[in-house]
């Protein structure tokens, strides 16, 4: 059972982005230019770029990114196993980021408690 109809969602998103393009064409032109800039040398290849995009999409929690880049990854030949490996990297990075920010909380706590002792 699918959690979401990703094909319909991607179509709806594309239509809504078309609305944004009409209202603010320079925004879309800027996005397209930025998106294309990283592809000019093509050192990674489209499949690898899409796998990275999926890991980032999960990290930033972007459903629109997930639907667009999942379709593109499949189109460029990414297997389910390759996608799972990329998602494993995203999971590990997110867990690592939580650990880094946990260290920041302890640092903040120590500064707060030291400041209280000074008062």
Topology:
Blueprint: H1 6-23, H2 25-37, H3 46-60, H4 63-75, H5 80-118
Helix pairs in contact: 1-2, 3-4, 3-5
Describe the structure.
By secondary structure, the chain is mainly alpha-helical. It has two domains: 1-37, no CATH class; 44-118, Up-down Bundle (AhpD-like), CATH 1.20.1290. 82% of the residues lie in helices and 0% in strands. The protein has helices at 6-23, 25-37, 46-60, 63-75, 80-118. Helix 1 (6-23) packs across helix 2, helix 3 (46-60) runs antiparallel to helix 4 (63-75) and helix 3 runs parallel beside helix 5. The N and C termini lie far apart (59 Å).
- Sheet of most strands: none
Give the amount of beta strand, in percent: under 5%
Number of domains: 2
CATH architecture heading of the largest domain = Up-down Bundle
Distinct helical segment count:
5
What Rg is obtained from the alpha carbons, in whole angstroms? 20 Å
Give the SSE order as H and E letters: HHHHH
Morphology: extended
CATH top level label of the largest domain:
Mainly Alpha
Q: Any low-confidence stretches, pLDDT <50, length ≥5?
A: none
Structural class: mainly alpha
What keywords describe this structure?
119 residues, mainly alpha, AhpD-like, 2 domains, 5 helices, extended
Describe the structure concisely.
With 119 residues, this protein is an all-alpha fold. It has helices spanning 6-23, 25-37, 46-60, 63-75, 80-118. The mean pLDDT is 94.
């Amino acid at each position: 059972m699918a959690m979401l109809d990703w094909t319909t969602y991607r179509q709806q998103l594309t239509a809504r982005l078309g609305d944004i393009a009409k209202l603010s064409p320079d925004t879309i032109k800027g996005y397209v230019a930025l998106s294309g800039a990283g592809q000019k040398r093509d050192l990674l290849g489209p499949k690898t770029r899409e796998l990275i995009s999926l890991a980032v999409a999960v990290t930033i929690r972007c459903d629109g990114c997930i639907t667009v880049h999942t379709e593109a990854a499949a189109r460029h030949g990414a297997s389910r196993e390759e996608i799972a490996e990329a998602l494993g990297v995203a999971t590990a990075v997110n867990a690592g980021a939580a650990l880094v920010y946990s260290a920041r909380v302890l640092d903040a706590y120590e500064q707060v408690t030291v400041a209280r002792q000074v008062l």
